[in-house]
Amino acid sequence: MDEKNYKIKNSYVRQGLTFFLAGAALILTFYAVNHMGTVLSGIKKMNDILMPFYLGIVMAYLLCPVYNATTRLVYKATKGKFSTPVRDLKLARAAATIVALAVMFMVVAGLISMIIPDLWNSIVGLINGMPETVSKVSDWITSHLNDNPELAVLLDQRLDDMYDTAMSWIQTKLMPGAEILISGLSVGVIGTFGAILDVFVAIIICVYVLNSKEIFVAQAKKAVLALFKQDRAARIMELGRLTNETFGGFINGKIIDSIIIGIICFIAMTLLKLPLTMLISVVVGITNVIPFFGPFIGAIPSIIILLLIDPIAAVKFGIMVLALQQLDGNIIGPKILGKTTNLASFWVMFAIIVAGGLFGFVGMVLGVPVFAVVYTYISRGINNRLKKKELPTETLMYEDFSKYKLEDFDKETVFRNRQQ
């Protein structure tokens, strides 16, 4: 077969494959629209099956810095002590796996040991202190409403009704639920991950991914280079590199940032002699993983709890959290995260609100790096088209300040100042 006929037949094959795939996509879309319940049920079942893989990959991604650092250290320490460098590397990887898993278990056990006792003591303390709190409020109402005894009696009655309702809810709903929660968490992390089998499988997958990540990356590169032209393959691999750098820098940076904020919160609450120091510090540290809104998400329920214990302590804590948020947003966060996402505050809020509304807590945490990758590629595409048209790519050049009637306003100077 000559080259010309081969090209013609090859083009017919491509066209036929394109028509076939387009028809199949239309049929699948029609089926999905008319059987949405079945599709969603199938997706849920598939997610349940793949949950150990999700958990294992996430654990491996978070433990990767610990694993890599341990591998480097052990390999340098044992280099040349075995017959080949391959055996030295195997030993280093085995040690790194043990260290990474030990770090994970210590972190989980430490969080449980810090949260559970304080949580239980807080619930019991609130219940035991509620009669005294109600009595203080009742005395305050009586002492300040002597001039209007009818209103005082009415408020006392309403307060008693609220107290009876709260106590009934605590006895019938909160306490049984708290006992179930405490007993479940005290056994292990079964309640968190859903099933103990998923946890064990996830740990195995985590170990496998940590020790095989280079193979997976190499296989992905081979597949991309085999399926796409060289320039397109280079762009795909650049996307993977950018995504890994953005996610890795952001997530690892936020974890370090949150640990620092939790420690500072613990020290500040200890100095201010506020109650529930450990529990609230852990809550503030964990919620700080969420960009922008994190400190406030952790502070609001903490303030409500402190109001029931000591209103003055709640005020002190609120002021402390505002100062802590400013410290984190202006000093600690930028130093640790640097320019990981390169997103303006508006787009950070946009990503958190949209992703959080669609995917909950996970969306609030991962929405910013995902949007950062999308934003980067949109910006690159726009700038490349502008360059082809020989137009400036700096956004400042398209900003209009004429309405302010500014004299001698030099955009170039402003641009240099923004870069600094």
Commentary on this structure:
With 420 residues, this protein is mainly α. Helix content is 85%, strand content 0%. It is built from 12 helices and no strands. Helix 2 packs across helix 6 and helix 7 runs antiparallel to helix 10 (311-337). The longest helix has 60 residues, at 85-144. The radius of gyration is 29 Å and the shape is globular.
Provide key terms for this protein.
12 helices, mainly alpha, 85% helix, 420 residues, globular
Could you provide a short overview of the structure?
The protein has 420 residues and is an all-alpha fold. It contains twelve helices and no strands.
Strand content: under 5%
Q: Number of DSSP strands? A: 0
Low-pLDDT parts are 187-193
User: Strand-and-helix sequence, N→C?
Assistant: HHHHHHHHHHHH
Q: Identify the overall geometry.
A: globular
CA distance, first residue to last residue: 64 Å
> What multimeric state do the chains show?
single chain
The biggest sheet, with number of strands, parallel, antiparallel or mixed sense and barrel status, is: none
Helix content: over 70%
* Rg from Cα: 29 Å
User: What integer is the average pLDDT?
Assistant: 77
Number of helices: 12
- What is the structural class? mainly alpha
Topology:
Layout (H helix, E strand, L loop, with lengths): L2 H32 L1 H43 L6 H60 L4 H39 L2 H4 L2 H32 L2 H42 L5 H11 L6 H16 L1 H27 L7 H44 L22 H9 L1
Helix pairs in contact: 2-3, 2-6, 3-4, 6-7, 7-8, 7-10, 7-11, 8-9, 9-10
